[in-house]
Amino acid sequence: MSVPPEPPLPIDLGADPARALARDELARAVYREAAPDPVQAALQWLARRLDDLLRAASDASPGGGWGLLVLVVLVVVVAVVVRRRVGRLARSAAAPGVVLGGTDRSAAEHRRLADQHAAAGRFDDAVRERMRAIVRSLEERTILEPRRGRTAGDAAREGGRALPAAAGALQDAARIFDETVYGGRAADADADARLRAADAEVAATRAVPAG
């Protein structure tokens, strides 16, 4: 007669190793870097609360046990969710706020790409290309000096000084661009329409002479 297998031994992780494991996970740089400010603040708050909970559980159960194991599992679940979101943002925001990277397209080419993306319902890409068209058009008009790594905010401030009548439109366009590309907010037809209107307003506004 076969002997039934022995039941698995209960897991006794121990309080100190469990706390160390969880705190090491929460201390990883992924929770401090590459996340927009609201997300980063929420993660820091969560890390403090979990650390407090682990500390309390350790004091109440010096020998460790299932309570601490559940908390560690919770930390791992949070880590997976956070890394998925923050990792995506980190990949798209290697240089936060930059409008023009390694591209030499003209404003007309960026507008054409924006139109194509919008027609296909890819509004995030449409917003990105429309903002690039706005910045490139300012460079082509010599209102802005061509410069790699210029952010949407930079372009709005610099362009607004030369085109005060269009300063509000430039600020609105820059805000939509940052929220869409780096803030994780999905663009829609309204965002695309606002960028189109800003582009048209900037193109129709004459520059004010310096001084």
From TrEMBL:
Domain Protein-glutamine gamma-glutamyltransferase-like C-terminal: 130-199
Keywords carried by this UniProt record: Membrane, Transmembrane, Transmembrane helix
Domain of life where this protein originates: Bacteria
InterPro entries for the chain: TgpA-like_C (IPR025403)
Transmembrane keyword on record: yes
Transmembrane segments: 63-82
Protein name (Swiss-Prot/TrEMBL): DUF4129 domain-containing protein
Organism: Actinomycetospora chlora
